[in-house]
Sequence to fold (287 residues):
Amino acid sequence: MDIRKITVLGAGLMGHGIAQVAAQIGKYDVTMRDVERRFIDNGMNMIKDSLERFVKKSQMTEVEMNEILARIHTTLDLREAVSDADLIIEAIPENVELKRTTFKEADAWAPPHAIIASNTSSVSITELASATGRPEKVCGMHFFNPPQLMKLVEIIKGAKTSDETIQTITETAHKLGKETVLVKKDSPGFIVNRILIPALNEAAALHWEGVADRDDIDRAVKLGLNWPMGPLMLLDYIGADTTLAIAEVLAKEIDPKFHASPGLKQMVKAQLLGRKTGKGYYEWTQK
Ligand code: CAA
Fold:
């Protein structure tokens, strides 16, 4: 199937980056939708900041930047956002009910041929698909943060996803300059988060237990495992709330051994979520 118009639902940390990559690398006509104007403005500002970095490094001209920005349309209206989309990528908060309602509404208003993909990292694709009348056209399309730089997209097959849908999404991800892996079964955490989240949780536990200081935990993993950033900084970068949500799903759906550490829970209770609230294990400035 030929994808021409992509709609991204959600202008947050992931949504804005996905919209940018679709307009910048894929050269797609993109609509980015959120529920409040301030979220859209914030998303557009993050896109501009990101594009300006490429311009400053002479990797892009200002003319190209403006062309990319002109390909991104914004709206608050879900119906308008999806009514002529070929592909809808959902990147709204990790709340099952909110996502199911959004899938149901998108399904009602999107053209019959449209594929609805979710960027979720913790909700079952099969469960989202069952909120629609087109489960064969629903799949997972999981980007990594920051989507502008991270090469991988996990493509997840729900219980009823068709091979044709998987093929179209794989081709589209390649047009966005991404490498893809196929997750054949809709299993919590897919591949990367099943491995990553327990590691971040253990870093939070080490810190909570006072086994080592923040900087030593991060330095140990950076230097000992060659990670680009330490686990506590990465936890801040992803958000303690998102990390906790994924840990809880892993514990509930796969094995209690994945249970979240008290240290991680404490960060969420204190709203020390990291980059998104300005403070977590580290202080985060606007940029
Ligand atoms: N847009 C454009 N350029 C950007 C950018 C953005 N959004 N963010 C960073 N950059 C650029 C910077 O301008 C900088 O460019 P130069 O080197 O040319 O100056 C370059 O990227 C490196 O950035 P920084 O110097 O700020 O910092 P860094 O070297 O640490 O790189 C990083 C930043 C790419 C994010 C790197 O630290 C990294 O790869 N971290 C790990 C990220 C990761 O693991 N992500 C996956 C999280 S898990 C997930 O997302 C899944 C889930 O479901 C939870």
